[in-house]
Amino acid sequence: RSILKTPLKQAATSHSVLTELQPDCQPLTTPTKPKEILPVDPWTPTSNLKMLISAASPEIRNREQRRELSNNPSEVLQAKHCLQEHLSGDEYEKSQPSRKEKSLGLLCHKFLARYPNYPSTAENNFICLDEVAEELNVERRRIYDIVNVLESLHMVSRLAKNRYVWHGRHNLSKTLQALKKVGEENKYTQQIQMIKKREHEHEFDFGGEKKEEIARSFGSNEHSEMSFVELPGMEFRAASVNSRKDKSLRVMSQKFVMLFLVSTPQIVSLEIAAKILIGEDQLEDLDKSKFKTKIRRLYDIANVLSSLELIKKVHVTEERGRKPAFKWTGPDVLPNIQGTKLETTSTTHPPPTSESIPSKEQCSKNLFPLKGKQNFTRHPSLMKLVKSIENDRRKIQSAPTSPIKIRASTDQNLSAFPSEMVQVPAITKHQLEGQSKKEKEMKMKLSRSALDCNLSSPDVLKPEASCSAVLPQQPALPQALGVCSPSHGSVSPVILPQTHSGVSYAIYLHPSQAHTVTTYSPSFMLQPLPCANVTGIKSINSKVVNKMTTEEGDNQIATGDPTKSLTTKERPAIKSEASSQRCFKRSQALQENHLPKRYRSDKESLDTSLSFFPSGYLIPLAQCTHSNKAGFSNEEKAGMCSLQHTTYSSPVAGVIPMTASELKAVNIPAFQITPLNIMLSPTSSIAAAPVLSNSSLNSSNTSSAPNLSSSVLNFTLQHVGLIPAGVQVPANPVLRHVPITSQPENISHCSENVSLQEKVRKNILQLLDHGELTGKYSAPCVPKEPQMPQTPTENFFRTPGGPNTVPSLSANSDGTNTISQETLYIPQRKLEVSED
DNA sequence: TGATCCCGCCAACGT
DNA sequence: ACGTTGGCGGGATCA
Fold first, then answer.
1. Which nucleotides in chain C have some atom under 7 angstroms from a protein Cβ?
2. Distance A303 CA to B10 C1' (A)
3. Where is this chain compositionally biased, Polar residues type (predicted)?
4. Is the pTM of this model over 0.85?
């Protein structure tokens, strides 16, 4: 039906028709809106709110649809009247929507009203663009605008074409932290100051060196191709997704937000934002049109951000006059403890349950060109790599909607259909066969597929706690199974304690490279696997266990999530349940959509999978089980349940020491508690579990010491899809030669075995030390920009306490630009913010 | 008027 | 060849 197609065409057609019929009327311009509108009630935010809230009402929808059908003024009027009668008094709204009623902001509100801020994993969080567009009665184009911005905040992530997953604000705080960090690294603060300074000087017409100055302030700006800041776990779906050249809206949105986060008075004027954003890629021609366009875009973004209540419009009055600006009204973003030493005056105490946990600035990918002449530039080879990765991603991304094919490269398929995991062996084989090509490429694919959405971006493999991650993770199953499969060990995840942000990465290695450990660094090339943090892995105490059970790496913990109130013990269980449900749903959805046949033999598959359970390919199966659980018959469920039980109590090596009784006692599925979960591949590859250590239980110490085990756990839970208890550690004898041991003793759930843990840690470190550790992905890396030198100045600069005391600033690393306080224009002082 | 920003053409990409 | 995305900027509206 035409509905499914781009609605624009329709409109366009009618429009042209209109034009034809009424040549003199509105030539090729935007059809003028019929003037006479119901004088009735004036538009008010409230009324609009009501309107949008009731937007879901079928009645309204119909009305709107009808309205939409008539682009012709006369028709519109007719429709209007019709509607008016149709509508009851209270539903009165101008049927002839004013411009405001069609604003992006309002639309965004409607959009947001459809989804909870903190969705539970259990609900259906899928977003079908077509449906939304239809229901909200807007062109899809508009939805893209919204979704793109939301995506930049990781509030949604793309699953496939036309399909997104709603995450709500679960990831928000992490995202903001990440953005803030990137913004700091990008020296946005300085850039802002620069621009302000320039403006100021402009009065005196210092024009001459303008350009140079700009150039300097921005650093030898080699086309900073905008890059998207990803969040661990979100990478794949998010940025990746389809890499249109620059993803400007998304990137712009992030950058815009960064500006707020790094500004002391968190107010950013459009003008400055535009200049900075422009400056980043083309400082040369600051031509007017470009500026204008940028502004337009910023308005779009601002509207969405406003709807999210992250910012609000204000006006700043300076010498130059009143300028539109926006003020950050979102949550305060704590400085990430690790990344920078910057301190926020206030929140220094480690809130036990703080939501703004120092979630590591998971900025997985920070491709911003560093400022300064001596900046590191992306190595060409890297660029290439990135490009190819992007391409791959693109392909994968669009797969879901397409007819399914079991292609090695389209892991997505697998993820969509848990049941298919059962066929892993075959698939794996297939993959292997096909992959005989470029090993490197394959490797990438594998890692991608295995980790999929969650860890997957080749650039960054970080575990993500978000529920949304669950599904995407599934793809990993096939891989895992494959690994386990005697005949084809394809890839195995490797756990690497993550450095930098204390997050571990999971990497899947190709068997051929089993001896090597490859890791993705979040910053890809900029941060070549720092091992420093790794050393911290040390004492693992009961706390860790506790923590693990508590965190589960889920972002939900962070904010007002309902589950938050649950005891730490309960939460995991609940969550897993939810997750499983979700998985099911998703798979189901996908199924309905495009791959009806595939699933046919779910049952069979299930059976197969069941048989696998005991074999030690626990993780994949577990996931499978879970996902199926929700949707299958009771008997099936029962079967699974029993399976789980046997599983965790199984004598299989690697099973956690936790006993079933213990589990019962706490009412948690055993699997939730496994302290350490390392999967070893038969091929001697190491399966690792990344983990994001975050939280509350985290001591102030940022070292990754306690993280390892928790990481593993998290990884397992998060990426493996809430694996059932004992399932965790496959005790595959074959793996024995692997440095990392996974024997039960090592996994004792308590603090007793520190030494063992230490052992593990060492092993990992060894692996890390391995020259090939960074593998191909990080090879082209350039040393990361020396962590922003934390000069006193900088600190001061950022200190909330002293907005007016911006001291002299040595903005550039090259030291060429030193701005003294005297000459620096500090608008903040003169700013008058007026909200309206 | 200047601030806003809707609208939808059309190119880039995918399938 | 067609569908999805989304850059882009003309010009309508709003304040």
1. 3-15
2. 25
3. 556-566, 805-822
4. no
